[in-house]
Amino acid sequence: MLSYMSAGSALFLSVLVVSAIARQKTHKSFQKHVLLFGTLLLVCAVISNVLINILIVQPSQTNQELAAGIVLTKRLQATFDYLFAIAIGAFIVLATTPTIGSRKDFVRHMTQEFPSSYVYYVFIMLVALISIIVAEVTVDPLSLPTVKLTFSVLIVFTNGLAVATIILYAWLRVVVYLRKTAVAQQVRRGLYLIVLGVTGIAVGELLFEVVLPFYFIDLRSPGFIIEMAFMGLIAFAVREKSFLEELIVPAAEADLMTKPTYDLERGYTYAVLEREGNQAFEIFKDLVTHGAQGLCITRRSPKTVMNAYGLERTPILWLSRVASEKNSVRPSPPENVAMAIDHFVDVGQRGVVLLDGFEYLVSHNDFSSVLALVHDLNEKVSLQDAILLLPIDPAALNEKEIALIRREVRAIGPLAQATEATERAFAR
Asked: 295 pLDDT band (50/70/90 cuts)?
């Protein structure tokens, strides 16, 4: 009875986890679908294990038939387990590779980096699965109805290697990603929770399915609950940042039939070199009132911007260190800004972003980190055929910093020619 209650609890928890993932509203739909697919495979493994418990209590079977059925069901469960491991490995790749947003991106990434670490990971998972299918597994008939499984050395070795690979792969991917990319604390915490969840599931499978059954200890049913709890931890870790979903809803301000005043080529970042930043706002208004979906991140009060430029549908975020409003974004670390822009560019169409506050970002971070932010955003808008407007006061920067910025962007505005002359003089 206890086994049935534990199995039922695990299946109930499975339904909750699957439902939570399925109902997630996120622009990272491919990542969500891979996680959902992996979760369903783990649920299938749980169901396979439940079948063992049902099989054991059937009085009409001989011990030989019972043993054969147990081995067959265990192999079926192992198949689902390792397919889950392959899926969760793919999910880890997605979680640590922001440039992958679709199946096509994933295939291109795998092709460009072939043979990648994920290919070796999948190879080890398949070797472990094949060893379970072909190698000998015996059930001690004297132990029935308690199940004592005896595995060959090959199975023990390959499964131990597979579990170690899952754990090391998850940790190494996350550690390398965190060292290469300065991410927000919330993202860092989520990645560690993912690794913890993957580690818990891998160790739980080895403990409850291989080690304990060898010693006449059957704790598979409680193990179901523990494993699904770890799966729930992963689902919790990748929940979408709600303020982005609620505040950044792409919408064109208007779609006027008149010809736009400013005709900017898409896929580029434009540094609008001026003292006050008014021309950048005029360009932004011109684009969003002619069908473009806009996002404004500004040092000015959102209400002031809305009233001054007649923006009613365009999302406006306040770049502020002290503002407590929900629509505010802190300037440090710069990844806070990057995350908002990434989200908007991914979900929007014909997007245009105005990032007003370059000097403010530099004052709260350092020039090199903000320049790295410009590098990343420049690549992002290029990939998504968007436009990034970056108003900059040249007087706030030195000649070297202006030259570095101009290498990455297209300079426009009333002071563009003056700074170009200064840059040439500096080069001499």
From this structure: very high
Burial class of 215 by CB neighbour count within 10 A (0 to 12, 13 to 18, 19+) = exposed
What Rg value do the Cα atoms of the chain yield, rounded?
28
- Tell me how far apart the alpha carbons of residues 224 and 292 are, in angstroms, rounded to a whole number: 50
Whole-angstrom Cα distance, residue 183 to residue 171? 16
DSSP per residue, 11-76: HHHHHHHHHHHHT---S-HHHHHHHHHHHHHHHHHHHHHHHHHHHHT-TTS-HHHHHHHHHHHHHH
Residues in contact with 98: Cβ distance below 8 Å, sequence separation at least 6, in sequence order: 342
Q: How confident is residue 242, by pLDDT bands cut at 50, 70 and 90?
A: very low
pLDDT digits (tens, 9 = 90+) for 212-227: 776 767 676 677 778 7
Summarize pLDDT for 21-52 with one digit per residue, the tens.
776 655 567 777 888 888 888 888 777 766 66
Are 45 and 84 a contacting pair, CB within 8 Å? yes
391 by DSSP, 3-state: which? strand
Contacts of 111 (CB under 8 A, 6+ apart): none
CATH 3.40.50.300 segments of the chain: 247-427
Could you say which of 3.90.25.10, 1.20.1090.10, 3.40.50.300, 1.20.1070.10 is the CATH number of the domain covering 2-240? 1.20.1070.10
Q: How far is it, in rounded angstroms, from Cα 84 to Cα 395?
A: 56
Identify the three-state secondary structure at position 250: coil
pTM for the model: 0.57
Q: Which amino acid is at 243?
A: F
Q: Are strands 137-139 and 149-151 parallel, antiparallel or unpaired?
A: antiparallel
User: Which residue do the tokens 């003056």 mark?
Assistant: 418
CATH 1.20.1070.10, the chain: domain bounds: 2-240
Cis peptide upstream of residue 260 (ω within 30 degrees of 0): no
Q: Which of 262, 246, 235, 253 is nearest to 344 (CA)?
A: 246
The identity of residue 74, as a single letter, is K
One CATH from 3.40.50.300, 3.30.9.10, 3.30.470.20, 3.40.50.720 for 247-427: 3.40.50.300
What 80-85 contacts at long range (C-beta under 8 Å, 24+ apart), as own/partner pairs, is 80/41, 80/42, 80/44, 80/45, 80/48, 81/41, 81/42, 81/45, 81/205, 81/209, 82/125, 82/126, 82/128, 82/129, 82/162, 83/41, 84/38, 84/41, 84/42, 84/45, 85/125, 85/162, 85/166, 85/202
